[in-house]
Amino acid sequence: MTDAARSPEDLGRLAQSLLDELARVTDEPGRITRTYLSPAHARSIDLVGGWMRERGLTTELDPVATLRGRRAADEGAAPRTLLIGSHIDTVVDAGKLDGTLGVIGGILALEEIERRGLRLPFAVEILAFGDEEGVRFPSALSSSSAATGTYRREWLEARDRDGVKLAEALIAFGCDPARIETATIDPAGVLGYLEIHIEQGPRLEHWGLPLGVVTSIAGQTRMSMTLTGMAGHAGTVPMDLRRDALAGLAEIILGVERIGRQGTGELVATVGRVQVFPGAGNTVPGRVEASLDVRAAADTPRLVALERIAWEAGRIAERRGLSVALERNVDVPTCPMDEGLQEAFARAVVSLGLDLRRLPSGAGHDAMAMARSFPSAMLFIRSKAGISHNPLEWSDPLDLGLGIEALVRTILDLAEKERDR
Amino acid sequence: MTDAARSPEDLGRLAQSLLDELARVTDEPGRITRTYLSPAHARSIDLVGGWMRERGLTTELDPVATLRGRRAADEGAAPRTLLIGSHIDTVVDAGKLDGTLGVIGGILALEEIERRGLRLPFAVEILAFGDEEGVRFPSALSSSSAATGTYRREWLEARDRDGVKLAEALIAFGCDPARIETATIDPAGVLGYLEIHIEQGPRLEHWGLPLGVVTSIAGQTRMSMTLTGMAGHAGTVPMDLRRDALAGLAEIILGVERIGRQGTGELVATVGRVQVFPGAGNTVPGRVEASLDVRAAADTPRLVALERIAWEAGRIAERRGLSVALERNVDVPTCPMDEGLQEAFARAVVSLGLDLRRLPSGAGHDAMAMARSFPSAMLFIRSKAGISHNPLEWSDPLDLGLGIEALVRTILDLAEKERDR
């Protein structure tokens, strides 16, 4: 006995209601903030884990707090596993869709396959990663790195703004950092990794298309910059005797912007976080700390930009009598998506009667880390005005439904291939 | 029976030991931070109040938490009062001398007069103000404003970074904001206000002199700047579509620096505090808040600089598609010191065998507010390398002792004049 297939409209409405419910789980009342291993992260695991179990999935939490929900294979000897996932952590003051859509979309795609009475020759596992955004610790993509056996143990020593070590936060969360190796998924048994995600950029909207197949994920480097000068009284230290760390940073920020604008390969360069010490209105800043994020669709433009920024920062600091320290926290090369899985996504998009467009991803995603071990691919869903990492982040629920229907069809396409294997 | 007069060396050593003890009273272990109405402010009132009472002064706390220690007059009918003071609040990560020296110096000068068995024809009141630095609330000089009846009631509605209103903080401190009027000191009964303070600048050191008489206090304007653009994902919003509030602020900071350098009349212009929202490394900043502090030895250069900064900020914001809001929190005109009290300080300096030099003050001081009601004057003590608002703030203890001895002689000089009155 099977239920009728849901329309994309219905799938979209259902997805939206779950997204709305998850958005209410936050560390900061009034806005959406769910950082890695926070109380809201714990509550989101309870909520999403409940949705998985209601739909017959078997859940577990891995040693880095990735929630895994497994549907067994219906047929086949020694079946392999198809991984589907994204993340449930968010930036500070986030929107409702970034990451969460990939997890909820995966759960609803499996529910839909169940409703339609379809059988799969592989197991499917939904992965809800907890550390994609890298907001709390300088350790982006650590959850998906653990799944691929590329977790960097020095991350465990990193501290958040309150001085809490990542290792301590994991233990407080009920996880066991000593067992991180057991989070690794054996590639031999994995068919591939699929992730659906909002585009977070303006291109699909510009083309008038709800869906697009991702060709590659932009390489990304994240750094910390520290400039040190000399604090002093804002009323008595003459302008020409100052060693103002913030004025030096201001020059560097404008340099970063200019280098970003001049770059090729869809280069973007951003200073998003600044802390000024001592940080009082009547004191010349003696020290500043700031973040730097540089990305491009290919490696060369990114590496060239990083060299130019480091050279300019050094020159500015020298001229101003400041010292400068640059520390590279994340350095991920450009990551091409798997050709075979791209084609499976492409066939599903075409089967929906939609024009097929392919595009690179400017944002980093768990699929970057997953691609180290597994054939990986992503499907993008149109974002309104390209806005993301912002409460105004929005996609038409119909687009969400079309994305989930495309995921259902991609899974069925892969099932056919698996039977022919 | 009288004790022998202490030498400037001994007075300096004694002052240094009290300064060291007060420096241990802090809200942040490992560095000196005592902001208005904080737990450390309360403990510093207990400590300094104890020193006052041990020396026979009668203490009280006024409705804005100014500690007042009074020595009655020894002679004369209907005696007037000489006010001596400075502040015991500090910037974040402060030195030991700024403000505290004026309070401790006043207490030790009275002790010395007592030891020498000298009699005064006026009462003396030592005022230890609590809100000079304006670090916690945007309300600088509020304590001394209350003493002159020029307290601005809107300060009571101002909030600190944790959202606590100044009025609430006063009540929690045991003060009664409804009684602020009773903090006003009647000018009719006041002879004048004296403040000794470290220079916080490099001029006395340059001249090789331990003491200098202040001619005027630089006018000062403090503003808050808010720039609003559009937050977005650092990987997907192309450089030419960004409305990055921090990049706009960077341009303004460099404009402030340039205008400061080009100005006349010892103009200084400082951005000392910046907050970025949402403040994550992978998000284009949507909003920034920053402080602006502009001072000069005369009003015109300061007002011209403010107009130029406002015009440039508006032009930068317009070009970048940002909105800008500038709010003036403090606006104090240049404040000349009282001629008669300057001469009393000058005679004391000369009587010590020192060359007499006069200089303007680049920093704001409680004497600015006190001058609204009372003849007021300041004596500066040499600062090493002009460093202040910094843990490296330092003056030779001998210079401190010379400053206190000069204060003793100034009080005695005024006593003679008062008897002739």
User: Helix and strand succession of chain A?
Assistant: HHEEEHEHHEHEEEHEEEEHEEHEHEH
CATH hierarchy: architecture of the largest domain in chain A: 3-Layer(aba) Sandwich
Number of domains of chain A: 2
Query: Quick one: how many beta strands of chain A?
Result: 16
Please count the helical segments of chain A. 11
Main sheet properties of chain A: 9 strands, mixed
Amino- and carboxy-terminal Cα gap of chain A: 29 Å
The helix/strand class of chain A is alpha+beta
Q: Which oligomeric state applies?
A: homodimer
CATH superfamily of the largest domain in chain A: Zn peptidases
- Percentage beta strand of chain A: 15-25%
Most residues in contact: chain pair: A-B, 71 and 71 residues
Shape of chain A: elongated
Give the low-confidence spans of chain A.
none
Q: Portion of residues in helices of chain A?
A: 25-40%
Mean pLDDT of chain A: 95
Describe this structure in words.
The structure is a homodimer of 421-residue chains. With 421 residues, the first copy, chain A, is an alpha+beta fold. Chain A folds into two domains: 8-218 and 335-420, Zn peptidases (Aminopeptidase, 3-Layer(aba) Sandwich); 219-332, Alpha-Beta Plaits (2-Layer Sandwich). Chain A is 35% helix and 22% strand. Chain A contains eleven helices and 16 strands. In chain A, the strands form three sheets. In chain A, strands 1, 2, 3, 4, 5, 6, 14, 15 and 16 form a nine-stranded mixed β-sheet that branches. In chain A, strands 7, 9, 10, 12 and 13 form a five-stranded antiparallel β-sheet that branches. A two-stranded antiparallel sheet of chain A has the order 8-11. In chain A, β3 (81-87), α3 and β4 (123-129) form a beta-alpha-beta unit. In chain A, α1 (8-23) crosses α3 and α3 packs across α11 (397-420). Chain A is elongated. The two termini of chain A are 29 Å apart. The mean pLDDT of chain A is 95. The interface between A and B is large, with 71 and 71 residues.
